[in-house]
Amino acid sequence: MILGFAAARLRLPPLLGYLLAGVIIGPGTPGFVADVALAGQLAEIGVMLLMFGVGLHFSLADLLAVRKVAVPGAVVQIGVATLMGMGVAWCWGWPIGAGLVLGLALSVASTVVLLRALESRGELDSSNGRLAVGWLVVEDLVMVLVLVLLPPLAGVLGGSSAAGGGAVEGSLWTALGITLAKVAAFIALMLVVGRRVLPKVLWWVAGAGSRELFTLCVIAAALGVAYGSAKLFDVSFALGAFFSGMMLRESEYSHRAADESLPLRDAFSVLFFVSVGMLFDPAVLLTDPVKVLAVTLVIMVGKTLAAIALVLLMRLPLNTALTVGVSLAQIGEFSFILAGLGVGLNLLPREGQNLILAGAMLSIACNSLLFAAITPLEQRLRARYRWARELALRPDPLSELPGTVHSESLSGQVVLVGHGRVGSRVADALLARQVPVVVVERRREAVEALRAQHRPAVVGDGAEPSVLIQAHIARASLLVVATPDLFDARKMVEIARALNPGIAVLARGDDSAEAELWRQEQLGAVVASDAAMARELVEQIVALRGEPAVHGGHGTASQT
């Protein structure tokens, strides 16, 4: 706590303090030495709880929405990073097996580090954040296969294995088939049984009316599913906890579950960084500085540039490419597991494990600083280079309405900005009444889903003139802002009225005082969420009492 606070006061990420605390109490430095094994177990709990929390906010639809980019991107990036690691090991004269283990360990990023970085920046629920998380989930699935396939291949790669060539080939295909079957069974069980059972269990426990029992149920679900998944299906604890969170998201108590587990998630996830620091031996910086530098460059430069290039090749904007690239500029838990397995199979020398730990320590320490540099770096590149401006402003295939949209749907239509929890219900209601609607939404997956239903939608920020132009705001009859932030809505209204002076405006606001200022400035009509809720409650009360509805008059509902 002291070192984390000191780092925060120095305007550095607190996790730097946690890492340093681990180094101080670790076996690599003089003085008190803490229990490394116990710290690792506590850190494992932190990883599970953190991944469980992400699952509570990350739906299956979010995961499927980024599959077209995350799956090929993660697989190719792992291949490129592995080849870079093997090339470095070849320069050092290491055998091919050691180079393969080193490259694989350097290729997979830490989900825990990424989540903490995205949470601190408020980007976990953004489109870039969801893409980065989906990318790392794919990496985790690939590493599950690697951990299973490495032992039967150890003999071929120069490690300790008594099996012959034919036996290796047979055991390899057998291990691969069994692993794929287990992963498929795990996913099927979670999707079929988990989505039905876990939310019901949460409902039953909540009905008992005991706060501590509900909290215990949430923790038991996270740790129990994670442990059972690891033992029965050979997937990682973290992946099991992630899927259990995704399944509990189906429950109406998912927000409460997230709130109840938050303090434990924060406390135990801190211990993950402490445990990383405890594994680090500072002496390696003095004995092998060149090798440490080479490993760190592969992690933070080579792997990052490869990911950025892949994302740009998939025609995504520069900011998305930089975010994904920086997200992968570190290594963590899976790298430690791979290194330990490699040493146990006599594939990786002990020196390689120390280099991996050193690279993890340095890359984790610098990752938050790299995230903070994304915006300044993008601005500098756009200011200096034409290619950067073109990449930043490149036309997204979803930023323009398809030519198949009928012209009648683009005259007198409603332009709806935001297709979240509120906006999607508004769009469905208008569609049921056959009112033409064009949706403007930042999330690409939401726009893809709407277009799959042949509904007009464009991706982008409603506060950008080019986006509203693509929504044909000049011919619209009404602008509806379904996002709660009235600050951004003000800019949308200014642009809309510049392009269409006669357009009507209706906005959503979560703050009554801000909504009143909005009305005073005659920016348009506004519905405050508390007032709308009060009106709905009054209507329900009147209906339940069997009284005739009262129209007009005074009160919160009518004023809205």
Describe, in plain words, how this protein is organized in 3D.
This protein is mainly alpha-helical. The chain contains 26 helices and 6 strands. β5, α24 and β6 form a beta-alpha-beta unit. The longest helix has 43 residues. The two termini are 48 Å apart.
Question: How would you summarize the topology of this molecule?
Answer:
Layout: H1 2-9, H2 14-24, H3 36-57, H4 60-65, H5 67-91, H6 96-107, H7 111-121, H8 127-153, H9 165-207, H10 211-233, H11 237-248, H12 254-279, H13 284-287, H14 289-313, H15 318-327, H16 333-344, H17 350-372, H18 374-384, H19 386-392, E1 414-417, H20 423-432, E2 437-441, H21 444-452, E3 457-459, H22 465-470, E4 478-481, H23 486-499, E5 504-509, H24 512-520, E6 525-528, H25 529-545, H26 556-559
Parallel strand pairs: 1-2, 1-4, 2-3, 4-5, 5-6
Helix pairs in contact: 1-2, 2-12, 3-10, 3-11, 3-12, 5-6, 5-8, 5-14, 6-16, 6-17, 7-8, 8-9, 8-15, 8-16, 9-10, 9-11, 10-11, 14-15, 14-17, 16-17, 18-19
Could you name the key traits of this structure?
disordered C terminus, 5% strand, 26 helices, single chain, 6-stranded parallel sheet, globular
- The beta-strand count equals 6
Strand order of the largest sheet: 3-2-1-4-5-6
Helix content: 55-70%
Name the poorly predicted regions.
162-167, 552-560
- Report the total helices: 26
Largest sheet: 6 strands, parallel
What is the overall pLDDT average? 79
Strand content: under 5%
Give the C-alpha Rg. 27 Å
Q: Give the overall shape.
A: globular
> What structural class results from the helix and strand content?
mainly alpha
